[in-house]
């Protein structure tokens, strides 16, 4: 994980340095945040309900040409899925709960501007797990217990669309899919829809 993090940092620094060599190009920094709708997909999971959480982090965008840029991000992402209550003969066997899996996500995106302000973007995303637990009382203080089922690293592909306003604010929607097995030797993958806003300084 440390080697991957160093490589990503090197790639970002190289991109920004190359962009700054041309005065016609520019580098912008910003922040973004919004809501996640995440779940786990695959034949080993019977379509669990999505967990609603949030994401928040930082953005660096380097313009390589007038309508093309590269963007690196680092952000917290609340993911996982909801567990439905199951019962047998009127007795609750499994209570409803949230399976919470939280990541630091580091995407590297290529952005193409279709018209002024509107772009589509896609690229690889690297997820580093920072928390994993089951919460039977998501709105309260209790009900948490730690688990150790999810792998520490997840390789994903992210794609989305974004519209920038002249004031520096932007709105965006994105989907990311994990190609890594979330659980060892299982057909289970992260799937996240997100929508939110941000601001470029």
From TrEMBL:
Keywords: Signal. Residues 1-19 form the signal peptide. Residues 18-182 form the Outer membrane protein beta-barrel domain. InterPro entries: Beta-barrel_OMP_2 (IPR025665), OMP/PagP_B-barrel (IPR011250). It comes from the Bacteria. This is Opacity protein. It comes from Aquimarina spongiae.
């Amino acid at each position: 994980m440390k080697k991957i993090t160093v490589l990503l940092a090197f790639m970002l620094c190289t991109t920004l340095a190359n962009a700054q060599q041309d005065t016609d190009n520019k580098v912008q920094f910003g922040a973004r945040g919004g809501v996640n709708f995440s779940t786990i997909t695959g034949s080993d999971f019977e379509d669990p309900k999505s967990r609603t959480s949030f994401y928040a982090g930082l953005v660096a965008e380097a313009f390589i040409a007038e309508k093309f840029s590269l963007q690196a991000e680092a952000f917290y992402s609340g993911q996982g899925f909801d567990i439905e209550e199951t019962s047998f003969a009127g007795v609750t066997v499994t209570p409803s709960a949230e399976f919470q899996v939280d990541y630091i996500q580091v995407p590297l995106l290529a952005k193409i501007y279709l018209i002024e302000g509107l772009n589509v973007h896609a690229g690889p995303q690297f997820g580093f797990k920072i928390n994993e637990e089951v919460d039977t009382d998501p709105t309260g203080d209790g009900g948490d217990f730690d688990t150790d089922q999810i792998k520490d690293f997840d390789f994903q592909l992210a794609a989305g669309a974004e519209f920038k306003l002249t004031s520096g604010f932007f709105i965006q929607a994105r989907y990311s899919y994990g190609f890594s097995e979330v659980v060892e030797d299982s057909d289970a993958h992260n799937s996240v829809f997100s929508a939110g806003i941000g601001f470029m300084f």
